[in-house]
Amino acid sequence: MSKQINVALIGNPNTGKTSVFNALTGLNQKVGNYPGITVEKKEGICKLPRGVKAHIIDLPGTYSLNASSLDENVVIELLLNKNDKDFPDIAVVISDVENLKRNLLLFTQIKDLEIPTILVINMADRMNYKGISLDIDYLEEHLKTKIALISTRKNQGIENLKNLIANYKDISVTPCLNASEIDKDYFDNLRKAFPNQLLYKLWLVITQDVNFGKTERNEIDAVSNFKTKSKSDLKRLQQKETIKRYQFINDVLKIGQVIDVSQAKDLRTKLDRVLTHKVWGYFIFFIILLTIFQAIYDWSSVPMDFIDSAFASLSEWTKNQLPSGAFTSLLAEGIIPGLGGIVIFIPQIAFLFLFISVLEESGYMSRVVFLMDRVMRRFGLSGKSVVPLISGTACAIPAIMATRNIESWKERLITILVTPFTTCSARLPVYLIIIALVIPEGRIFGLGYQALTLMLLYLIGFGTAIISAYILNKILKIRSKTFFVIEMPNYKLPLFKNVALTVVEKTKSFVFGAGKIILAISIILWFLASYGPGEQFNDAENIVKTAYASENLTEEDLQQKIASHKLEHSFIGITGRAIEPAIRPLGYDWKIGIAIVSSFAAREVFVGTLATIYSVGSDEEETIKNRMAGEVNPILGGPLFTFASGISLLLFYAFAMQCMSTLAIVKRETNSWKWPTLQLVIMSGFAYIVALIAFQFLK
Amino acid sequence: MQDTIAHLKRGEKGIIVDVSSIHIPLKLLEMGCLPGNSVELVQLAPFQDPMYLNINGTHLAIRKETATHILIEKITHE
Ligand SMILES: Nc1nc2c(ncn2[C@@H]2O[C@H](COP(=O)(O)OP(=O)(O)OP(=O)(O)O)[C@@H](O)[C@H]2O)c(=O)[nH]1
Ligand SMILES: [Mg+2]
């Protein structure tokens, strides 16, 4: 039997851990040029030479073993808990050749844990560019380790790394410096009290709050009781420790690394002069946002129109080709229109992810954090909240996970609570179809009204998020230390492969994730819309014929009337009309009501639901948009989707909390039902009121 | 009065002399903000906050509030 070894990838943020992970395992985890892309443990398998199998664990980045935020804590917890099933047999420390000195701090700490440690120096392709040369033999000797100099971008050195991992037994486990020298008496006492424990591990446990195995924790509690070191003394000792480690590192690098500054090229300074400028910085940020909306709106309209009509003809074709019957109409009236309601949005979703991923890969995101920190702080947020708020435009779920690198719990909680206000990609379908129906097509300053409306909706989303943050900041009585440190990475040309992968993966999961739900819902809806109880439904033909006997209707009109009479008395019609009184004041009919209810499963379902309901109610081949435009308001007459009801619907979707997965993730990240419940009640209640006011004023 | 990082103007440099204040997070020291290292103010956001620094080759941004606790000696160009 081949045995499996645990390999943990550890390193500072943004050094390429995930890139190495992907290279070793062949998986496609997300990579980006922003410290804090990976926020939880990811696992994969790698086959090594001589039949050894390695279980590779990708971890969030951390600057040291003293955690100051939740993502960093993951690493420490793993390393301190020998009983964890993922406890590494080998630690692979990934460092970035440009920041070797800083990266080695963590390396020396891990060596002190006496785990076999390999040092990977990544981004070797940047050495020439920065005028760096290394004496690997010297470094290996003094750091007491094996070194793999690699470049995941150029795919160099990976085989060598695999070999080193396979031969991990040869790697020394002696620490490379003696950190306990900083306070001999203290550490001697500690060693005497716990002769069986690793000294450095004890020290880590004393100096920080780690979820530790219960028994061991108690032992340590005992030690901190009989040792009398005040908190500030401990902190001073930690400072001393850090300085000592850096002294050692400086000494090693003095000989092991040569940097020829005259060779170094510096793009960063030039770009930062503009991109982080007091005025130009904000201006450029605004232009970038504007471009994104224009792109989402204008560039994708061509493929969208094409997809829309293709699905309409497919549905028609199915109806004509297959023998008529329940199955055919399920297919033609339920499934195909339902799926069409999702596939149509692929172009926009892809554009959105394209832009977000380019922003992340280029290193621009940290600049936005820098520019926005001061503004965000006014509202009780952190500059780092900008990243969740921006990536929330794709989906609130990863966005809420991305808050894990915010140091202050209060700032983090507020960010989690307000992030669902940002316009996620699932709202986009609803917005787009309604904007197309009720906003005229004209242009002003070269920008379409429709694109501007869309941008306005995004701004409303951000605005509400920020204002709610301000209110929460005033209400919530949480004391937590706030500080803020963010690394500003080098600019990088986005790697086409990384960007393309993100776009494809995300779009795929949008289509399939939502697709599954939509498929299920459209089948249920079709069933509920095609069958009904009682005479009104089953005898619809006679009832309608008698009712209109005096009028001279054409055969076609008569069929139309029968179909809609049937729909109204089907199961779904009955349910819909039961909830209609609640939503009529907002300007909606029962069909929209059904769509709103079903979109609690996922917002994208809205359009698919309407598509299914409408196509059961009519015979003709029509695109979704034309069907919606043709709907008549049952009470007021005239089109159902007017300016007033359209705006009301847009606003409802802008504010309502309509996503079960988001609620679930908020529960997980805040560890309580209190916050998701509050979100659901407050956001949806607010949405109802705003939509009500809007419709009543505009109608 | 002793200078701090908050006293730097854009483009100015200094040498860090003391970081023992309790208000300086350990993380900052671990990122290389240690006595003897050089610090350059690369860029300021409006209201001089946050501050974008280059500390011995590491580029990072911190809030002004933290910067006022890091004592430095300015390097004046001849
Ligand atoms: N030039 C160059 N860039 C690289 C190399 N490896 C990774 N990168 C880039 O470095 C950035 C960070 O890569 P990631 O793999 O996300 O780094 P990480 O350590 O997982 O980052 P976090 O999860 O945020 O801690 C990305 O923009 C990569 O494209 C390399 O060998 N050369
Ligand atoms: Mg990562």
From TrEMBL, chain A:
InterPro entries listed in its UniProt record: Fe2_transport_prot-B (IPR003373), Fe2_transport_prot_B_C (IPR011640), FeoB_GTPase (IPR050860), G_FEOB_dom (IPR030389), Gate_dom (IPR011642), GTP-bd (IPR006073), P-loop_NTPase (IPR027417)
Chain segments annotated as coiled-coil in the UniProt record: none
Keywords for the protein's UniProt record, in alphabetical order: Cell membrane, GTP-binding, Ion transport, Iron, Iron transport, Membrane, Nucleotide-binding, Transmembrane, Transmembrane helix, Transport
Spans traversing the lipid bilayer: 279-297, 335-359, 379-401, 413-439, 451-472, 510-529, 636-656, 677-698
FeoB-type G domain span: 4-171
Membrane topology according to the record: Multi-pass membrane protein
Statement: the UniProt record of this protein carries the keyword DNA damage: no
Localization per record: Cell inner membrane; Cell membrane
Function comment: Probable transporter of a GTP-driven Fe(2+) uptake system.
Family: Belongs to the TRAFAC class TrmE-Era-EngA-EngB-Septin-like GTPase superfamily. FeoB GTPase (TC 9.A.8) family.
Protein's UniProt name: Ferrous iron transport protein B
Annotated organism of origin: Flaviramulus multivorans
Organism lineage: Bacteria, Pseudomonadati, Bacteroidota, Flavobacteriia, Flavobacteriales
Gene encoding the protein: feoB
Automatic annotation (TrEMBL), chain B:
Keyword check for ATP-binding: no
A Pfam family assignment: FeoA
Keyword annotations: Iron
Domain Ferrous iron transporter FeoA-like: 3-74
Record SUPFAM superfamilies: C-terminal domain of transcriptional repressors
InterPro entries per record: Fe-transptr_FeoA-like, FeoA, FeoA_core_dom, Transcriptional_repressor_C
Entry protein name: Ferrous iron transport protein A
Organism: Flaviramulus multivorans
